[in-house]
């Protein structure tokens, strides 16, 4: 027997009792989550500073406020989201009640990563709770500060018969995954995404996988270098580049590169000062393993900007690499750090071909003064999401789904999409137990006129007498 | 196909924010033999409408339809974007080694797992339309003949080879006693004194399934029907009683014209019985009392639900068809098909100018800048759209 059996059994029994179904229960859970965020703001900011050297402000805007917004949105819309959806009926079903009912799946597992450890654990949790599920949270063991707060403090704010935090590394997670869950949402790498999906297969468990990739950032010749440099730099170096939707590499012409480099340096200096290592707005790499990995990438191509590192702090300077080969490691794996390689292409078509030769990314960016260029990039490529002359600002919109495609993932969440993701949409048809004479028409034997009548009625699509 | 505009916030007021529906790319549809035209072509409609290239793998078991789909259908479509591939389990296994961008499979849970395992290797999203044993609860408070008409028709339609057909009945012994003559009456009215000669009763797909079903006839006790004719793969509309939960007829999806009746004492026992088992694709409850029907609906889970009705909802393209748990994942029909076969891409198009407006979000963050940004972020969806 493994350490999870009892916990999961307890949660299943609670779900079976119907506890999580009423709106009042779900709203109480969401309010509890809201209180957790408000009452432990400093504790969470401290944990994020400990884990990733995030400033209190950055912790707020990228994690805590985002979570609070999701809680508020769910509370505001809970009844509307939970409501049965009426559907159009046809001639056969005119007298019936036809609707789609949203139901919780049951026991939901959320496996979260370390880069936005509050956001990427709690935003999915909002959706799972709003949808009426019992939830097991598996926060990342790598972001230890946040893991501790989530494990020790968060449960006090929720009904612990319906919610549990489980801890551990890859081995414990493997054990956990042997159990049956009714839905799994995983955020992490494609490699581990496959492990999760393989485990889910054994129980026919549906999954949402929020994975990653190398997010291309095309910079057209027709644009203002400083504007582009500001935007690209900010989105690249935010959270020290440890963002799944950050621009991973730039594609531009050699001429554009020559104009972009000084502009990037200017932006970096304005944002982080002459000595970025002492800027309060620049974070650190999560741990030594990733620090080493990133430091090794600094020897790819040629360092045009930055390139400094300090092992004692897991500090890597905001860096730009040029003269990079596609075969080098920095162009092979997702960088997930404050390093921005620039690859040269001659024009939009070559950029599109380059992008389409590779796995579909989670995000794709195109910068150009020409709408035509931006739209052409949008039309000819595929990615989880797309930003034109912009970075991942869409992440602040709860009206936008967050999800990948191809190697960058499947499924989506945020806002109402979370509620729908964690709900089974059950088609329901409630008919009257009487009026059987009306039904007589559909039973065999089928005379000629009966056949014609039924065929005709069936061919008449959705009567909107509803 | 139209881009869907979405609500924006203060930061994105001047931007264009929308969700674009895009085809996944290469879609594989693996279809079964029981409704070989419907379950191959309805998914195809969605995949084509969503702009995908499609590979169709019809069932090799329904050979007549397979032939028409393979030889005639391609003439009507652009063959650079569409192909029919043929074969059995071995060929399908080979096919699945290749990478597809979406797979829709209709069939058994056992094969569903094989499909999903293959999909995992390429991180291919799937919709799996599987099966199960669909319970049919018959309350004491109902008119037996009305219920018998409805249950019999949905059970024996297509000779019971329907993934959403009522698989077994749950009712009290008293109700069973009233239901049996009513079921016999319905069967006789529908199919005549000699159902084998009725033009409205089908046959079992092949000998393998015929044997499987004939073996099930020895479970419990035959109350109605029970005849079979191997030369025609004919099985009579049959009702079994005195059935044990451990017998094969209550273990596997029947997929034939055999209806076992299990006894329960009341709604709660029926609900417990159902919830002890895998979530079915469909669930039916018959009662004069709306309260009973709604209680069954509230306390159980299934792909879909029919109250005092069978799978009539299948005629509504406004309803999604999909399972839950062991009966499947994902859904299609109507617009749900289009959405299933589309990637919904979040798009934000900003202006390349007006950079001064953006200055506020860049570091370093003074006190007032922090307050302003935090405040703006906390203001949800401005509906100035």
From TrEMBL, chain A:
GO terms for cellular component: cytoplasm. InterPro entries: Ald_DH/histidinol_DH (IPR016161), Ald_DH_C (IPR016163), Ald_DH_CS_CYS (IPR016160), Ald_DH_CS_GLU (IPR029510), Ald_DH_N (IPR016162), Aldehyde_DH_dom (IPR015590), Aldehyde_DH_NAD(P) (IPR012394). One of its GO terms (molecular function) is aldehyde dehydrogenase (NAD+) activity. Coiled coil: none annotated. SUPFAM superfamilies: ALDH-like (SSF53720). This is Aldehyde dehydrogenase. Keywords: Oxidoreductase. Pfam families: Aldedh. It comes from the Eukaryota. Belongs to the aldehyde dehydrogenase family. The lineage of its organism: Eukaryota, Metazoa, Chordata, Craniata, Vertebrata. Transmembrane segments: none annotated. Residues 11-424 form the Aldehyde dehydrogenase domain. The keyword Thylakoid does not apply. The keyword Oxidoreductase applies.
Automatic annotation (TrEMBL), chain B:
InterPro entries: Ald_DH/histidinol_DH (IPR016161), Ald_DH_C (IPR016163), Ald_DH_CS_CYS (IPR016160), Ald_DH_CS_GLU (IPR029510), Ald_DH_N (IPR016162), Aldehyde_DH_dom (IPR015590), Aldehyde_DH_NAD(P) (IPR012394). Residues 15-343 form the Aldehyde dehydrogenase domain. The active site is at residue 129. Pfam families: Aldedh (PF00171). Keywords: Oxidoreductase. Gene3D superfamilies: Aldehyde Dehydrogenase, Chain A, domain 1, Aldehyde Dehydrogenase, Chain A, domain 2. Belongs to the aldehyde dehydrogenase family. This is Aldehyde dehydrogenase family 3 member B2 isoform X8. The gene is LOC102539021.
């Amino acid at each position: 027997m493994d350490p999870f059996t009892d916990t999961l059994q307890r949660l299943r029994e609670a779900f079976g009792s119907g506890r999580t179904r009423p709106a009042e229960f779900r709203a109480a859970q969401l309010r509890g989550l809201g209180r957790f965020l408000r009452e432990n703001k400093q504790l969470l900011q401290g944990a994020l500073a400990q884990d990733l050297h995030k400033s209190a402000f950055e912790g707020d805007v990228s994690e805590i406020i985002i979570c609070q917004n999701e809680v508020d949105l769910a509370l505001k819309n809970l009844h509307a989201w939970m409501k049965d959806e009426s559907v159009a009926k046809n001639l056969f079903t005119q007298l019936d009640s036809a609707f789609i009912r949203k139901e919780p799946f049951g026991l939901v597992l959320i496996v979260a990563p370390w880069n936005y450890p509050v956001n990427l654990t709690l935003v999915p949790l909002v959706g799972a709770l709003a949808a009426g599920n019992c939830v097991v949270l598996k926060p990342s063991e790598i972001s230890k500060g946040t893991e501790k707060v989530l494990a020790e403090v968060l449960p006090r704010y929720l009904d612990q018969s319906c919610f549990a935090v489980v801890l551990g590394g890859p081995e414990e997670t493997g054990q956990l995954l042997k159990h049956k869950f009714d839905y799994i949402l995983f955020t992490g790498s494609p490699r581990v995404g496959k492990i999760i999906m393989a485990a889910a297969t054994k129980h026919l468990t549906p999954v949402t996988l929020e994975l990653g990739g190398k997010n291309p950032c095309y910079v057209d010749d027709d644009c203002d270098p400083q504007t582009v440099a500001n935007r690209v730099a900010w989105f690249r170096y935010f959270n020290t580049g440890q963002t799944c939707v950050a621009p991973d590499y730039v594609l531009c012409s050699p001429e554009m590169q020559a104009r972009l480099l000084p502009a990037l340096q200017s932006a970096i200096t304005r944002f982080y000062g002459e000595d970025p290592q002492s800027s309060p707005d620049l974070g650190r790499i999560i741990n030594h393993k990733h620090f080493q990995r990133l430091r090794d990438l600094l020897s790819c191509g040629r360092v045009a900007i930055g390139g400094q590192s300090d092992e004692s702090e897991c500090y890597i300077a905001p860096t730009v690499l040029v003269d990079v080969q596609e075969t080098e490691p920095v162009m092979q794996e997702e960088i997930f750090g404050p390093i921005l390689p620039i690859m040269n292409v001659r024009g939009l078509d070559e950029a599109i071909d380059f992008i389409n030769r590779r796995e579909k990314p989670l995000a794709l960016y195109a910068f150009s003064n020409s709408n035509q260029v931006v739209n052409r990039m949008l039309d000819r490529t595929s990615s989880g999401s797309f930003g034109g002359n912009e970075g991942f600002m869409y992440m602040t919109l709860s009206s936008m789904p967050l999800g990948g495609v191809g190697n960058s993932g499947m499924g989506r969440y945020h806002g109402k999409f979370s509620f729908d993701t964690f709900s089974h949409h059950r088609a329901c048809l409630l008919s009257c137990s009487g009026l059987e004479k009306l039904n007589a028409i559909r039973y065999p034997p089928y005379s000629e006129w009966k056949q014609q009548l039924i065929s005709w009625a069936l061919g008449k699509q959705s009567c909107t007498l509803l």
